[in-house]
Specification:
With about 425 residues, the protein is of the alpha+beta class. The chain has helices at about 1-15, 65-70, 80-90, 160-175, 190-200, 220-245, 255-270, 280-285, 355-360, 410-420, and strands at about 110-120, 130-140, 145-150, 180-185, 205-210, 300, 315-325, 330-335, 340-345, 345-350. A hairpin with a 2-residue loop joins strand 8 and strand 9.
Length: about 425
Amino acid sequence: MDIDQGDNVEEGRASEGEEGKEETPQEDGEDLSTPRADAGNGDEDIEEEAETQRALRDPGMPSKEKRAEHELSHLPFRPWCDACVKGRAKDKMSLRLTDSYSRSGVPRVRMDYCFLTERHDDDTEEGEGAGESATVFVMQESVCRSVWAYAVERKGAAEDWVVSQIAEDLDTVGLREDRIVIKSDQEAAVVDMAKGVAEVRASRHGSAIEHSAVGDSDSNGTIERAIQDLEQQVRVMRAALEIRINQKIKLSDPIVPWMVRHAASLITRCRIRPCGKTSYQLMKGRRSNAKLAEFGEVVHFRIPKTPLMPGKIEDLWSEGVWLGFDMRTGEYMIGTPAGVFRVATVRRKAMDVRWSADKIQNMRGSPKQPVPNQASTRAPAYSRKYESAPTKDDYVPQSTQPVGIKNWKIYKRNVLDKGPTEG
């Protein structure tokens, strides 16, 4: 009897709470725990769900006795002590993200600047602006973890060629149509570059921009590690080249921007990632079949078949400085006094004639403008026409057409009409 009364009481309470509400008929086999698909946005019967969030750590509250004992020496550090927090608290630790916090379905492209500096022998420590400095923009993506580096003249997106080259390199990786997250710090120059890349990309899904906290470079540690690897590789390549040619390589030398570019390419092509494959293998699906030479060595290269290729009695091979390879095509980059060009076939020279400081100093062209006085930022295929191309400092006189002088006569009517010549 008591059970029946309890049931009636519960039913009465339920009926009171449901007065004025229209009952929804339940179909056979319907699971009420699952929200109905045909429910409207204003249906108050559907419970909203929220993702569980992590809260900041609670320092706790000690007893009066413990607080009084701690205030005698303030040792050791206690998070609930205001004086300890103000004078001894450390910055938050940058921990490696795991589980759902580390997994992301959206590729991330990380960007930042670094500087290559050198000090001259006659520079003093107190001198401002002593030595030279080269600005390098570094990019790394999360899909293949490939590294790309660009030697630039200044910070920011003022150099349009860098923004366009980054978009092209992202296409090479395979991120043309993907939505990406561009992550950088909050430095104005890097933010400007990130916005420029987002505008230039041809993706229909757009590009999100994400910034690390102010003054917290550790939160963007992946690109910091990539910059560290790049700087180390550039130093090693510079030292190796100086040993080969027995001459100092300066930051102002034309080969340095190509050294920066090739250093990033070597990291992408040669370094094995934790998955057991290189970034190049992850990008292309196979190993690269392009053979390498030492950076800066003089090689023979076959002149490509172009409409202006040499005749059958002329030399079919020339020589230049080996500067690396093109990541997209696998072609080799060769430096010459006329500029930097793409070729498909090279041969190494004998060791005693493989290195030349003069050829390195006399080569021209940069990643921004491979061939001087050419608008394109992409190195063209080599052709003999570039060997005789005039430089911007050369004076080229305009060709004059020969003037044809015809025989003529003066008639009496011309004298009467125009008058005789004075004198």
